[in-house]
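Z., the sequence and structure:
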Amino acid sequence: MNKEILYTTATDKNGGLIRINNAEKGVDYYCPLCKKEFILRKSGKTGKGSRRSHFAHNEITPNCTPEGVLHYSFKKMLIELLERHKTENKPFILNWFCNSCGCKNSGNLLEKTASIKEEYGLGECRPDIALIDKAEKIIAVIEVVVTHEPEESVLQYYKENKITLIRIDLTSEQDLNRIEEKVKNPDIVDLCLSPKCSNRDQYRINRRVAVLQTQCNRCSSPIEKYEIAIESVLGKRMSLDFTDDEINWMKSKANEIGFRVQIAEKEDTKEKYPVFVCENCQRMRNRYRSSRL
């Protein structure tokens, strides 16, 4: 059972966000939401019967809850984290499983993000955080959920406008201590990069066959290697997840130019992909067979 959520963040006189562990007695603190004065309750006692350190309102304030302050604080701290990664040009890699097909996905949250907006007005809704590209187009939204899930009309708006939804569920104020972990492993990402996913047509994804120059592992002769280049709102990545149609297309192209293609399979995922047969190795094998006849 989850512990009771308490007020564990406040603002100081300058509006800066203060965590309970850094709060000191004799300093004025205020509620981040209603802006009313807070009382610091930090006894230092531990053990049975003692209550966790927290802030409390000096007077009862309707409609201001610890859950609301948790939501506000997580959102503010997350924006600061993302802005720092963006300024330092550091990737922010998300990992998630598709709710429809169960496929494991990953992508760089900030690769196409030019700006990060809080409570960005979309007419139909105001997402907690909106990620906007260089063309001033919203590519993804982050919704932080404590008690109230996004309304069905909001979810429908995101789907209709092909806006990728990233959802983070919070259960306690301890989530503030692991913001990066929570966001890098979100509860829901409405995007799947697998071509076999039943919802693939609703996403903005571009796939193309990429031809890469490499060397034969046996004889070091130059050969070509095929991969799928995938581009989405969460950046670019290479994959060996070929569809049957893509494999058949590669076979036909190889036949046109007189090359042989074999179908290989990854042991862990069982994904099938085409590989060129090295001409030099093939000639060597043919000579070896002929010499034994």
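The chain has three domains: 1-64, 67-196, 205-292. The chain has a mean pLDDT of 87.

Let me know what you think.
H.
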